[in-house]
Write a structure and sequence with these properties.
Blueprint (H helix, E strand, L loop, with lengths): L4 H24 L7 H69 L6 H15 L8 H9 L34 H21 L8
Length: about 200
């Protein structure tokens, strides 16, 4: 017999139980085994009954195994999905870090960087609970434009960038403060989301 040891013992028990039933039936009803034809039919009945019971048990066991396999496959799929999502979040955060480095140095940020940041941000939150300032973050990135430091004092007011965003030449304030703050906020939202999905609890004390 094949299967787990417990399953084999169950089948042995069923076989012995049916064997006892067959013996008692033969003793109580001798006519069932009075000639070779009846005996063959009698044995065939009990063998068929044993096979039917085994088949029922196997169907039940296989159904349970199938459900377990389906659950395991779903768990593995969700784990892989979380890993891929975590990888995408990390890639987006790295681009944000590069953009922040450029902005803090008052350098232009590549349009490709801005597009990839928006792509990762939208892909993560478009089908899930969106952050409170989700649309505002995207609007600010959409309105981003590099302002050369020498022209900062001549820049006109922008609907998204308030006047203080463009300080007079020589002022200590970074002309890209609004974009910097927005990217930092988006970075925090991405990190928070990733940590919640991966059940990160921090370093031990």
């Amino acid at each position: 017999m094949i299967g787990k040891p417990l399953s084999r013992w169950v089948y042995v028990f069923i076989f012995l139980l049916l064997l006892v039933g067959a013996i008692l039936s033969g003793i109580n009803y001798p006519s069932l085994i009075k000639d070779p034809v009846n005996t063959l039919g009698f044995l065939g009945f009990w063998i068929t009954l044993f096979g039917l019971i085994v088949a029922i048990f196997e169907i039940m066991r296989t159904g349970s195994v199938t459900r377990q396999m389906a659950h395991a496959a779903e768990v593995a799929h969700n784990r892989l999905k979380r890993q891929m999502e975590h990888h995408d979040v990390q890639a987006c955060i790295e681009i944000i870090n590069a953009a922040l480095s450029d902005l803090n140095s008052k350098k232009a940020v590549s349009v490709i960087f801005i597009s990839r940041i928006k792509q990762g941000y939208i892909a993560l939150f478009s089908k899930q609970h969106t952050p409170e300032r989700y649309r505002e973050n995207l609007d600010i990135l959409n309105s981003y434009e590099h302002v050369v430091q020498s022209r900062a004092n001549r820049a006109q007011a922008n609907p998204t960038y308030a006047a203080p965003q463009y300080p007079a030449s020589g002022a200590g304030q970074n002309p890209y403060r609004l974009t910097i703050d927005t990217l930092k906020r988006m970075q925090d939202e991405l990190l928070t989301h990733s940590a919640s999905k991966n059940e990160y609890i921090g370093e031990p004390a």
